[in-house]
Amino acid sequence: MTLNEILYGDTIFKEGSLVLEAGCGVGAQTKAIAKNSPGARIISVDISLKSLSAARKKAADETNFPAEYLNCDIFSLPFLKNSFDYIFVCFVLEHLKNPRDALLELLKFLKPGGEIIVIEGDHGSAFFYPDSSDAKRNIECLVSLQAKAGGDALIGRRLYPLLKDADFSDVCVFPRIIYADSSNPALVRGFTKKTFTAMVEGVGFDVISSGIMTEKEWENGIRALYRTCEEDGTFCYTFFKATGKKI
Amino acid sequence: MTLNEILYGDTIFKEGSLVLEAGCGVGAQTKAIAKNSPGARIISVDISLKSLSAARKKAADETNFPAEYLNCDIFSLPFLKNSFDYIFVCFVLEHLKNPRDALLELLKFLKPGGEIIVIEGDHGSAFFYPDSSDAKRNIECLVSLQAKAGGDALIGRRLYPLLKDADFSDVCVFPRIIYADSSNPALVRGFTKKTFTAMVEGVGFDVISSGIMTEKEWENGIRALYRTCEEDGTFCYTFFKATGKKI
Asked: Which segments does the entry list as coiled coil (chains A, B) (predicted)?
Protein backbone atom coordinates (compact mmCIF):
# COMPACT_ATOMS: atom_id res chain seq x y z
CA MET A 1 0.00 0.00 0.00
CA THR A 2 1.12 3.56 -0.63
CA LEU A 3 1.20 6.21 2.10
CA ASN A 4 -1.88 7.88 0.57
CA GLU A 5 -3.79 4.61 0.60
CA ILE A 6 -2.85 3.95 4.23
CA LEU A 7 -3.84 7.45 5.35
CA TYR A 8 -6.82 8.31 3.14
CA GLY A 9 -7.95 5.05 1.53
CA ASP A 10 -10.91 4.61 3.87
CA THR A 11 -11.98 8.27 4.02
CA ILE A 12 -15.04 8.30 1.81
CA PHE A 13 -17.57 11.14 1.62
CA LYS A 14 -21.11 10.24 0.61
CA GLU A 15 -22.51 11.14 -2.80
CA GLY A 16 -23.86 14.69 -2.78
CA SER A 17 -22.21 15.66 0.52
CA LEU A 18 -20.55 18.98 1.26
CA VAL A 19 -17.03 18.71 2.67
CA LEU A 20 -14.80 21.32 4.28
CA GLU A 21 -11.07 20.68 4.15
CA ALA A 22 -9.89 22.95 6.95
CA GLY A 23 -6.24 23.95 6.55
CA CYS A 24 -5.41 22.48 3.16
CA GLY A 25 -1.94 24.05 2.95
CA VAL A 26 -0.43 23.53 -0.48
CA GLY A 27 -3.14 21.02 -1.31
CA ALA A 28 -1.00 17.96 -0.67
CA GLN A 29 -3.98 15.87 0.44
CA THR A 30 -6.84 17.45 -1.48
CA LYS A 31 -6.60 15.32 -4.58
CA ALA A 32 -6.05 12.12 -2.59
CA ILE A 33 -9.24 12.62 -0.57
CA ALA A 34 -11.26 13.82 -3.57
CA LYS A 35 -10.29 10.73 -5.57
CA ASN A 36 -12.27 8.42 -3.29
CA SER A 37 -15.40 10.58 -3.33
CA PRO A 38 -16.18 11.84 -6.82
CA GLY A 39 -19.78 12.63 -5.83
CA ALA A 40 -18.87 15.01 -2.97
CA ARG A 41 -18.29 18.77 -3.19
CA ILE A 42 -15.05 19.73 -1.45
CA ILE A 43 -14.21 23.25 -0.30
CA SER A 44 -10.60 23.56 0.83
CA VAL A 45 -9.52 26.56 2.89
CA ASP A 46 -6.23 27.83 4.26
CA ILE A 47 -5.09 30.94 6.11
CA SER A 48 -1.92 31.27 4.00
CA LEU A 49 -2.34 32.90 0.59
CA LYS A 50 1.12 31.66 -0.34
CA SER A 51 0.20 28.03 0.35
CA LEU A 52 -3.12 28.46 -1.44
CA SER A 53 -1.53 29.87 -4.55
CA ALA A 54 0.74 26.81 -4.69
CA ALA A 55 -2.36 24.62 -4.28
CA ARG A 56 -4.21 26.55 -6.99
CA LYS A 57 -1.26 26.35 -9.34
CA LYS A 58 -1.18 22.57 -9.00
CA ALA A 59 -4.96 22.44 -9.49
CA ALA A 60 -4.77 24.60 -12.62
CA ASP A 61 -2.59 21.95 -14.27
CA GLU A 62 -5.50 19.50 -14.12
CA THR A 63 -8.77 19.40 -15.92
CA ASN A 64 -11.78 19.14 -13.62
CA PHE A 65 -9.84 19.57 -10.39
CA PRO A 66 -12.23 18.22 -7.77
CA ALA A 67 -12.05 20.97 -5.10
CA GLU A 68 -12.47 24.73 -4.69
CA TYR A 69 -9.77 26.66 -2.82
CA LEU A 70 -10.67 29.57 -0.57
CA ASN A 71 -8.42 31.81 1.50
CA CYS A 72 -9.76 32.02 5.05
CA ASP A 73 -8.92 31.51 8.68
CA ILE A 74 -10.58 28.55 10.39
CA PHE A 75 -11.33 30.91 13.29
CA SER A 76 -13.48 33.17 11.07
CA LEU A 77 -15.02 30.97 8.41
CA PRO A 78 -17.37 32.69 5.95
CA PHE A 79 -19.88 29.81 5.91
CA LEU A 80 -23.29 29.21 7.43
CA LYS A 81 -23.33 27.29 10.69
CA ASN A 82 -24.51 23.66 10.45
CA SER A 83 -23.74 23.45 6.76
CA PHE A 84 -21.10 20.76 6.19
CA ASP A 85 -21.61 17.01 6.14
CA TYR A 86 -17.91 16.40 6.77
CA ILE A 87 -14.95 18.40 7.97
CA PHE A 88 -11.51 17.04 7.12
CA VAL A 89 -8.49 18.28 9.08
CA CYS A 90 -5.09 16.87 8.20
CA PHE A 91 -1.71 17.89 9.64
CA VAL A 92 -3.21 21.15 10.94
CA LEU A 93 -3.82 20.78 14.70
CA GLU A 94 -0.14 19.98 15.32
CA HIS A 95 0.69 23.60 14.37
CA LEU A 96 -1.91 25.33 16.53
CA LYS A 97 -1.51 26.84 19.99
CA ASN A 98 -5.17 26.11 20.67
CA PRO A 99 -6.26 22.94 18.86
CA ARG A 100 -9.30 22.52 21.13
CA ASP A 101 -10.58 26.01 20.24
CA ALA A 102 -10.10 25.21 16.56
CA LEU A 103 -12.13 22.01 16.95
CA LEU A 104 -14.88 23.82 18.89
CA GLU A 105 -15.04 26.40 16.09
CA LEU A 106 -15.20 23.76 13.36
CA LEU A 107 -17.92 21.90 15.25
CA LYS A 108 -20.26 24.88 14.67
CA PHE A 109 -20.03 24.40 10.90
CA LEU A 110 -20.87 20.70 10.91
CA LYS A 111 -24.48 19.68 10.35
CA PRO A 112 -25.98 17.75 13.27
CA GLY A 113 -25.05 14.15 12.50
CA GLY A 114 -22.04 15.37 10.50
CA GLU A 115 -18.57 13.92 10.95
CA ILE A 116 -15.10 15.31 11.54
CA ILE A 117 -12.06 13.40 10.32
CA VAL A 118 -8.72 14.39 11.81
CA ILE A 119 -5.35 12.99 10.72
CA GLU A 120 -2.14 13.83 12.56
CA GLY A 121 1.31 12.36 13.00
CA ASP A 122 3.27 11.80 16.20
CA HIS A 123 7.02 12.22 15.98
CA GLY A 124 7.50 10.35 19.25
CA SER A 125 6.19 7.25 17.49
CA ALA A 126 9.26 6.96 15.26
CA PHE A 127 11.64 4.08 15.89
CA PHE A 128 14.03 2.29 13.62
CA TYR A 129 16.80 -0.22 13.10
CA PRO A 130 19.67 0.27 13.55
CA ASP A 131 18.65 2.26 16.62
CA SER A 132 20.53 5.52 17.16
CA SER A 133 20.57 7.89 20.11
CA ASP A 134 21.86 10.61 17.76
CA ALA A 135 18.86 10.27 15.46
CA LYS A 136 16.53 10.18 18.46
CA ARG A 137 18.05 13.43 19.66
CA ASN A 138 17.48 15.04 16.26
CA ILE A 139 13.82 14.06 16.42
CA GLU A 140 13.53 15.41 19.97
CA CYS A 141 14.90 18.72 18.68
CA LEU A 142 12.19 18.79 16.04
CA VAL A 143 9.57 18.22 18.74
CA SER A 144 11.08 20.99 20.91
CA LEU A 145 11.14 23.47 18.03
CA GLN A 146 7.50 22.78 17.25
CA ALA A 147 6.62 23.18 20.95
CA LYS A 148 8.47 26.52 21.02
CA ALA A 149 6.42 27.64 18.03
CA GLY A 150 3.28 26.77 20.00
CA GLY A 151 2.57 23.46 18.27
CA ASP A 152 2.68 19.83 19.35
CA ALA A 153 4.52 17.26 17.26
CA LEU A 154 3.25 14.54 19.64
CA ILE A 155 -0.41 15.38 19.04
CA GLY A 156 -1.37 12.06 17.41
CA ARG A 157 -1.48 10.21 20.72
CA ARG A 158 -3.84 12.78 22.23
CA LEU A 159 -6.45 13.07 19.49
CA TYR A 160 -8.84 10.99 21.58
CA PRO A 161 -8.98 13.30 24.62
CA LEU A 162 -8.78 16.36 22.35
CA LEU A 163 -11.88 15.49 20.33
CA LYS A 164 -13.79 14.37 23.42
CA ASP A 165 -12.87 17.63 25.12
CA ALA A 166 -14.13 19.58 22.10
CA ASP A 167 -17.61 18.05 22.50
CA PHE A 168 -17.49 15.56 19.64
CA SER A 169 -19.35 12.33 20.25
CA ASP A 170 -18.62 8.78 19.10
CA VAL A 171 -14.91 9.57 19.03
CA CYS A 172 -12.86 6.75 17.48
CA VAL A 173 -9.12 6.75 16.93
CA PHE A 174 -7.36 4.48 14.46
CA PRO A 175 -3.58 4.31 14.47
CA ARG A 176 -2.02 3.99 11.02
CA ILE A 177 1.46 2.55 11.30
CA ILE A 178 3.91 2.97 8.47
CA TYR A 179 6.56 0.25 8.49
CA ALA A 180 9.25 0.34 5.84
CA ASP A 181 11.96 -2.21 5.08
CA SER A 182 13.87 -3.06 1.93
CA SER A 183 11.17 -5.46 0.74
CA ASN A 184 9.28 -2.25 -0.18
CA PRO A 185 11.90 0.10 -1.68
CA ALA A 186 9.24 2.59 -2.85
CA LEU A 187 8.06 3.11 0.74
CA VAL A 188 11.64 3.35 2.06
CA ARG A 189 12.41 6.02 -0.52
CA GLY A 190 9.03 7.75 -0.40
CA PHE A 191 8.51 7.73 3.36
CA THR A 192 11.68 7.07 5.38
CA LYS A 193 13.98 9.04 3.09
CA LYS A 194 11.94 11.68 1.26
CA THR A 195 9.27 12.37 3.88
CA PHE A 196 10.52 11.75 7.40
CA THR A 197 14.29 12.18 7.07
CA ALA A 198 13.82 15.13 4.69
CA MET A 199 11.53 16.79 7.24
CA VAL A 200 14.08 16.30 10.03
CA GLU A 201 16.88 17.58 7.78
CA GLY A 202 14.76 20.64 7.05
CA VAL A 203 15.12 21.99 10.59
CA GLY A 204 18.89 21.37 10.80
CA PHE A 205 19.79 25.02 10.32
CA ASP A 206 17.41 26.16 13.10
CA VAL A 207 18.68 23.52 15.51
CA ILE A 208 22.36 24.18 14.87
CA SER A 209 22.01 27.97 14.88
CA SER A 210 20.05 27.85 18.13
CA GLY A 211 22.98 25.97 19.68
CA ILE A 212 20.95 22.97 20.88
CA MET A 213 23.18 20.59 18.92
CA THR A 214 26.50 21.01 17.17
CA GLU A 215 26.64 20.56 13.42
CA LYS A 216 28.58 17.34 13.91
CA GLU A 217 26.06 15.87 16.35
CA TRP A 218 23.20 16.83 14.06
CA GLU A 219 24.84 15.25 11.05
CA ASN A 220 25.50 12.03 12.93
CA GLY A 221 21.78 11.80 13.59
CA ILE A 222 20.88 12.49 9.96
CA ARG A 223 23.38 9.86 8.82
CA ALA A 224 21.79 7.37 11.23
CA LEU A 225 18.34 8.07 9.71
CA TYR A 226 19.68 7.46 6.19
CA ARG A 227 21.32 4.30 7.53
CA THR A 228 17.85 2.89 8.29
CA CYS A 229 17.13 3.02 4.52
CA GLU A 230 19.78 0.42 3.76
CA GLU A 231 19.20 -3.24 2.95
CA ASP A 232 18.95 -4.38 6.60
CA GLY A 233 17.28 -1.25 7.99
CA THR A 234 13.69 -0.77 9.15
CA PHE A 235 11.64 2.30 10.03
CA CYS A 236 8.32 2.75 11.87
CA TYR A 237 6.08 5.76 12.27
CA THR A 238 2.49 6.02 13.45
CA PHE A 239 -0.14 8.43 12.16
CA PHE A 240 -3.50 8.73 13.86
CA LYS A 241 -6.88 9.08 12.23
CA ALA A 242 -9.69 10.19 14.50
CA THR A 243 -13.36 10.56 13.75
CA GLY A 244 -16.08 12.26 15.78
CA LYS A 245 -19.71 13.22 15.29
CA LYS A 246 -21.79 16.28 16.05
CA ILE A 247 -24.92 15.26 17.91
CA MET B 1 -10.53 -6.85 18.67
CA THR B 2 -8.82 -8.62 21.52
CA LEU B 3 -5.04 -8.84 21.86
CA ASN B 4 -5.16 -12.53 20.86
CA GLU B 5 -7.15 -11.70 17.73
CA ILE B 6 -4.71 -8.94 16.76
CA LEU B 7 -1.66 -11.14 17.29
CA TYR B 8 -2.83 -14.60 16.21
CA GLY B 9 -6.09 -14.10 14.32
CA ASP B 10 -4.49 -14.51 10.90
CA THR B 11 -2.09 -17.33 11.81
CA ILE B 12 -3.78 -20.36 10.27
CA PHE B 13 -2.13 -23.73 9.75
CA LYS B 14 -3.45 -25.88 6.92
CA GLU B 15 -5.55 -28.99 7.54
CA GLY B 16 -3.30 -31.99 8.21
CA SER B 17 -0.14 -29.92 8.74
CA LEU B 18 2.49 -30.56 11.39
CA VAL B 19 3.38 -27.52 13.49
CA LEU B 20 6.25 -26.93 15.91
CA GLU B 21 5.70 -24.29 18.57
CA ALA B 22 9.29 -23.58 19.56
CA GLY B 23 9.57 -22.10 23.05
CA CYS B 24 5.99 -22.37 24.26
CA GLY B 25 6.77 -21.29 27.82
CA VAL B 26 3.73 -21.74 30.07
CA GLY B 27 1.55 -22.30 27.02
CA ALA B 28 0.13 -18.78 26.96
CA GLN B 29 -0.27 -18.80 23.17
CA THR B 30 -0.75 -22.49 22.42
CA LYS B 31 -4.52 -22.55 22.74
CA ALA B 32 -4.95 -19.29 20.85
CA ILE B 33 -3.02 -20.57 17.82
CA ALA B 34 -4.60 -24.03 17.98
CA LYS B 35 -8.09 -22.53 17.97
CA ASN B 36 -7.71 -21.21 14.41
CA SER B 37 -6.36 -24.51 13.04
CA PRO B 38 -8.32 -27.48 14.38
CA GLY B 39 -6.99 -29.71 11.56
CA ALA B 40 -3.32 -29.19 12.37
CA ARG B 41 -1.16 -31.23 14.75
CA ILE B 42 0.77 -28.95 17.11
CA ILE B 43 3.85 -30.02 19.05
CA SER B 44 4.89 -27.41 21.61
CA VAL B 45 8.36 -27.55 23.15
CA ASP B 46 10.17 -25.61 25.84
CA ILE B 47 13.53 -25.89 27.56
CA SER B 48 12.06 -25.18 30.99
CA LEU B 49 10.40 -28.10 32.77
CA LYS B 50 8.87 -25.66 35.23
CA SER B 51 7.17 -23.69 32.44
CA LEU B 52 6.07 -26.88 30.73
CA SER B 53 4.50 -28.30 33.85
CA ALA B 54 2.46 -25.09 34.18
CA ALA B 55 1.45 -25.48 30.52
CA ARG B 56 0.53 -29.13 31.03
CA LYS B 57 -1.48 -28.31 34.14
CA LYS B 58 -3.56 -25.80 32.20
CA ALA B 59 -3.96 -28.30 29.36
CA ALA B 60 -5.07 -31.05 31.76
CA ASP B 61 -8.03 -28.90 32.79
CA GLU B 62 -9.41 -29.13 29.27
CA THR B 63 -10.84 -31.99 27.32
CA ASN B 64 -9.17 -32.58 23.96
CA PHE B 65 -6.42 -30.02 24.47
CA PRO B 66 -5.14 -29.39 20.96
CA ALA B 67 -1.35 -29.65 21.44
CA GLU B 68 1.30 -32.00 22.82
CA TYR B 69 3.95 -30.60 25.17
CA LEU B 70 7.54 -31.81 25.04
CA ASN B 71 10.53 -30.79 27.11
CA CYS B 72 13.45 -29.97 24.83
CA ASP B 73 15.95 -27.34 23.86
CA ILE B 74 15.47 -25.72 20.46
CA PHE B 75 19.23 -26.21 19.93
CA SER B 76 18.88 -30.00 20.20
CA LEU B 77 15.47 -30.94 18.92
CA PRO B 78 14.63 -34.67 18.84
CA PHE B 79 12.86 -34.47 15.48
CA LEU B 80 13.69 -35.46 11.94
CA LYS B 81 15.07 -32.71 9.73
CA ASN B 82 12.64 -31.35 7.09
CA SER B 83 9.61 -32.55 9.01
CA PHE B 84 7.45 -29.56 9.97
CA ASP B 85 5.09 -27.61 7.75
CA TYR B 86 5.17 -24.64 10.11
CA ILE B 87 7.32 -23.43 12.96
CA PHE B 88 5.78 -20.89 15.30
CA VAL B 89 8.05 -18.82 17.55
CA CYS B 90 6.44 -16.28 19.85
CA PHE B 91 8.19 -14.10 22.46
CA VAL B 92 11.24 -16.38 22.39
CA LEU B 93 13.96 -14.69 20.30
CA GLU B 94 13.91 -11.60 22.57
CA HIS B 95 15.40 -13.77 25.36
CA LEU B 96 18.20 -15.37 23.36
CA LYS B 97 21.84 -14.35 23.10
CA ASN B 98 21.96 -15.85 19.61
CA PRO B 99 18.58 -15.47 17.88
CA ARG B 100 20.15 -15.96 14.44
CA ASP B 101 21.61 -19.32 15.48
CA ALA B 102 18.23 -20.36 16.86
CA LEU B 103 16.58 -19.47 13.55
CA LEU B 104 19.25 -21.33 11.55
CA GLU B 105 18.65 -24.37 13.74
CA LEU B 106 14.88 -24.20 13.36
CA LEU B 107 15.23 -23.84 9.59
CA LYS B 108 16.64 -27.37 9.45
CA PHE B 109 13.40 -28.80 10.81
CA LEU B 110 11.12 -27.06 8.33
CA LYS B 111 10.09 -28.95 5.21
CA PRO B 112 11.19 -27.26 1.99
CA GLY B 113 8.35 -24.84 1.24
CA GLY B 114 7.48 -24.72 4.94
CA GLU B 115 6.91 -21.47 6.80
CA ILE B 116 8.20 -19.89 9.96
CA ILE B 117 6.03 -17.42 11.89
CA VAL B 118 7.78 -15.22 14.42
CA ILE B 119 6.01 -12.82 16.79
CA GLU B 120 7.95 -10.44 19.02
CA GLY B 121 7.34 -7.18 20.83
CA ASP B 122 9.48 -4.05 20.88
CA HIS B 123 9.54 -2.08 24.12
CA GLY B 124 10.93 0.97 22.33
CA SER B 125 7.64 1.18 20.45
CA ALA B 126 5.67 2.17 23.57
CA PHE B 127 4.37 5.72 23.77
CA PHE B 128 1.45 7.18 25.62
CA TYR B 129 -0.54 10.16 26.76
CA PRO B 130 0.09 11.87 29.07
CA ASP B 131 3.75 11.54 28.10
CA SER B 132 6.17 10.97 30.97
CA SER B 133 9.95 11.01 31.06
CA ASP B 134 9.78 8.98 34.30
CA ALA B 135 7.80 6.20 32.64
CA LYS B 136 10.13 6.27 29.62
CA ARG B 137 13.05 5.84 31.98
CA ASN B 138 11.39 2.82 33.61
CA ILE B 139 10.95 1.23 30.18
CA GLU B 140 14.58 1.96 29.28
CA CYS B 141 15.62 0.15 32.47
CA LEU B 142 13.61 -2.87 31.39
CA VAL B 143 15.40 -2.81 28.03
CA SER B 144 18.80 -2.51 29.75
CA LEU B 145 18.08 -5.41 32.11
CA GLN B 146 17.07 -7.63 29.20
CA ALA B 147 20.23 -6.59 27.31
CA LYS B 148 22.35 -7.45 30.38
CA ALA B 149 20.72 -10.90 30.45
CA GLY B 150 21.76 -11.34 26.81
CA GLY B 151 18.36 -10.60 25.29
CA ASP B 152 16.95 -7.78 23.17
CA ALA B 153 13.69 -6.10 24.16
CA LEU B 154 13.88 -4.05 20.93
CA ILE B 155 13.97 -7.12 18.70
CA GLY B 156 10.64 -6.48 16.92
CA ARG B 157 12.11 -3.79 14.66
CA ARG B 158 14.90 -6.09 13.52
CA LEU B 159 12.97 -9.23 12.64
CA TYR B 160 13.31 -8.41 8.95
CA PRO B 161 17.14 -8.42 8.82
CA LEU B 162 17.26 -11.27 11.36
CA LEU B 163 15.16 -13.67 9.26
CA LYS B 164 16.92 -12.65 6.04
CA ASP B 165 20.26 -13.22 7.72
CA ALA B 166 19.13 -16.70 8.83
CA ASP B 167 18.53 -17.72 5.21
CA PHE B 168 14.74 -17.53 5.17
CA SER B 169 13.23 -16.41 1.88
CA ASP B 170 10.10 -14.34 1.14
CA VAL B 171 10.50 -12.57 4.48
CA CYS B 172 7.52 -10.35 5.27
CA VAL B 173 7.06 -8.29 8.40
CA PHE B 174 3.69 -7.02 9.61
CA PRO B 175 3.55 -4.57 12.49
CA ARG B 176 0.63 -5.08 14.86
CA ILE B 177 -0.08 -1.92 16.77
CA ILE B 178 -2.06 -2.04 19.98
CA TYR B 179 -3.76 1.27 20.70
CA ALA B 180 -5.82 1.58 23.87
CA ASP B 181 -8.01 4.45 25.01
CA SER B 182 -11.04 4.60 27.30
CA SER B 183 -13.43 3.81 24.45
CA ASN B 184 -12.15 0.23 24.89
CA PRO B 185 -11.89 -0.33 28.67
CA ALA B 186 -11.23 -4.06 28.26
CA LEU B 187 -8.09 -3.35 26.23
CA VAL B 188 -6.94 -0.63 28.65
CA ARG B 189 -7.32 -3.05 31.55
CA GLY B 190 -6.11 -6.15 29.70
CA PHE B 191 -3.18 -4.62 27.87
CA THR B 192 -2.03 -1.25 29.25
CA LYS B 193 -2.62 -2.16 32.88
CA LYS B 194 -2.40 -5.93 33.29
CA THR B 195 0.10 -6.73 30.54
CA PHE B 196 2.47 -3.83 29.89
CA THR B 197 2.44 -1.93 33.18
CA ALA B 198 2.41 -5.18 35.16
CA MET B 199 5.46 -6.38 33.20
CA VAL B 200 7.32 -3.12 33.91
CA GLU B 201 6.33 -3.28 37.59
CA GLY B 202 7.67 -6.82 37.71
CA VAL B 203 11.28 -5.69 37.33
CA GLY B 204 11.03 -2.87 39.89
CA PHE B 205 12.89 -4.78 42.59
CA ASP B 206 15.81 -5.59 40.23
CA VAL B 207 16.05 -2.00 39.01
CA ILE B 208 15.93 -0.44 42.45
CA SER B 209 18.28 -2.97 44.03
CA SER B 210 20.79 -2.51 41.21
CA GLY B 211 20.79 1.22 42.00
CA ILE B 212 19.90 2.37 38.48
CA MET B 213 16.87 4.26 39.79
CA THR B 214 15.72 5.21 43.28
CA GLU B 215 12.49 3.73 44.58
CA LYS B 216 10.84 7.14 44.33
CA GLU B 217 11.88 7.68 40.71
CA TRP B 218 10.72 4.19 39.80
CA GLU B 219 7.35 4.68 41.45
CA ASN B 220 6.84 7.99 39.67
CA GLY B 221 7.24 6.15 36.40
CA ILE B 222 4.83 3.40 37.41
CA ARG B 223 2.30 5.99 38.50
CA ALA B 224 2.64 7.70 35.12
CA LEU B 225 1.93 4.40 33.34
CA TYR B 226 -1.21 3.87 35.42
CA ARG B 227 -2.16 7.48 34.65
CA THR B 228 -2.40 6.57 30.93
CA CYS B 229 -5.25 4.19 31.86
CA GLU B 230 -7.50 7.04 32.96
CA GLU B 231 -10.41 8.52 31.00
CA ASP B 232 -8.25 10.86 28.86
CA GLY B 233 -5.19 8.59 28.57
CA THR B 234 -3.95 6.66 25.56
CA PHE B 235 -1.33 3.93 25.12
CA CYS B 236 0.41 2.50 22.04
CA TYR B 237 2.64 -0.53 21.62
CA THR B 238 3.74 -2.35 18.48
CA PHE B 239 4.25 -6.08 18.09
CA PHE B 240 5.81 -7.51 14.96
CA LYS B 241 4.78 -10.63 13.11
CA ALA B 242 7.29 -11.93 10.58
CA THR B 243 6.96 -14.82 8.16
CA GLY B 244 9.64 -16.53 6.10
CA LYS B 245 9.89 -19.61 3.91
CA LYS B 246 12.41 -22.39 3.49
CA ILE B 247 13.26 -22.79 -0.17
From this structure: none
